[in-house]
């Protein structure tokens, strides 16, 4: 087992990883920019190292600074968290080449799944259905027009080198295609260093269903159920729940088993998430995330399995030690992403936190690095807290979430707490009737 782990991230996820390490008796090293010197993850780590000025490119994306910090601190492994370098195959290779354990998949698997076209081909080879679309990158507008006509409008243009809604544009017809291609290529180049894009059929009202998997070095792989991540704004997730209110028990077992078989077939190790679009009983593979997900707590709540602990165990070479039959699902869980943003314009709202009171009580968990007097810097993602609630069934979970949202106080900055309070009262949400476009329709009508 590792003796000391450097956490190459910040905020709530760095704090989450540090807590898992503390539970396991592993020492931790926090890295931070000058803007994060007083952050909670820095305060609670065993050691800390400043790796640069506020801009992420000069600190949290500075590979040399992170590796130097690990060397100076005497760490024997690096956990990349999520975001920043978590899905950077070259960073994972550098970590291993410098003699540190990388707490994540192999660089080869990160590279494979980071290329969305190669990932689709691997999914097909592993027996997973995919959304109809182009077989590879589309470079010429003339080729895009031909393929779009064959696929059928509307179509989605998507970045080949990444996801998260960046480099994604919809074209409703031939007259819209050239503009959508131009915008998608520009966004893809800016975010992923490549303007390569591909085309997929646009599904009208699908749900976004993702399956959490866990695999070790020894050929064992299990699935930990699915999460419904359909409540999205501009392809960014806002609220997630597990299990999905849309799936039957048979569908749940079918897609979970296929996901576990797929990662077993490619020899994957660590945690990962296979994402699907689901419509009318059919699943379509869209991508695989080779890292811990923001929404991992709801899976932990319904399974009782600590995903960060399992990540660390697997990276250290330990076997899972259990099979699919040992995974038990209990109750329902919902996560609200609390962002520091203007509730009307959704512009980021950095600043000093003047009041902070986290909700509590049975079945309530808050993952956050905020505290009274903490400062939310303008340089990073606006996510400041995750409110996670668990209960025996979905309606009890929703009522518990209503209570928790009512107790949550964050002063001094704008947040989207009111959005969540209104959202969970809507009749469609209460009934579980929503799709990936529902939230934007709801926001336009309210």
Summarize the structure.
With 446 residues, this protein is α+β, with helices and mostly antiparallel strands. The chain has helices at 11-24, 40-44, 63-73, 89-97, 107-114, 116-125, 141-151, 174-192, 249-265, 296-303, 307-315, 394-407, 417-423, 427-431, 438-445; strands spanning 4-7, 27-33, 47-52, 77-79, 101-102, 155-159, 169-171, 197-201, 207-215, 221-233, 236-242, 270-279, 282-289, 332-339, 351-352, 355-357, 364-368, 375-376, 383-391, 409-411.
Counting copies of identical and different chains, the oligomeric state is single chain
Find the CATH superfamily of the largest domain: ATP-grasp fold, B domain
Mean pLDDT, all residues: 95
Distance between the termini: 52 Å
The number of distinct β-strands equals: 20
Major sheet: size, sense and barrel closure? 8 strands, antiparallel
CATH class of the largest domain: Alpha Beta
* Tally of contiguous helical segments: 15
Tell me the radius of gyration. 21 Å
Low-confidence stretches: none
- Structural class call reads alpha+beta
**CATH fold category name of the largest domain:** D-amino Acid Aminotransferase, Chain A, domain 1
* Binned strand content: 25-35%
Strand order of the largest sheet: 13-12-9-10-11-14-19-17
Shape verdict: globular
The CATH level-2 architecture of the largest domain is identified as 2-Layer Sandwich
Q: Roughly how much helix do the residues carry, as a percent range? A: 25-40%
**Number of domains as seen in the coordinates:** 3
Report on this model:
With 446 residues, the protein is α+β, with helices and mostly antiparallel strands. It has three domains: 4-86, 3-Layer(aba) Sandwich (Rossmann fold); 132-201, Dna Ligase, domain 1 (2-Layer Sandwich); 207-445, D-amino Acid Aminotransferase, Chain A, domain 1. Helices cover 35% and strands 26% of the residues. The protein is built from 15 helices and 20 strands. The protein has helices at 11-24, 40-44, 63-73, 89-97, 107-114, 116-125, 141-151, 174-192, 249-265, 296-303, 307-315, 394-407, 417-423, 427-431, 438-445; strands at 4-7, 27-33, 47-52, 77-79, 101-102, 155-159, 169-171, 197-201, 207-215, 221-233, 236-242, 270-279, 282-289, 332-339, 351-352, 355-357, 364-368, 375-376, 383-391, 409-411. The strands form five sheets. Strands 13-12-9-10-11-14-19-17 form an eight-stranded antiparallel β-sheet. It has a five-stranded parallel β-sheet with strand order 3-2-1-4-5. Helix 4 (89-97) links the parallel strand 4 and strand 5. Helix 4 runs antiparallel to helix 5 and helix 7 (141-151) packs across helix 8 (174-192). The longest helix has 19 residues, at 174-192. It is globular, with a radius of gyration of 21 Å. The mean pLDDT is 95.
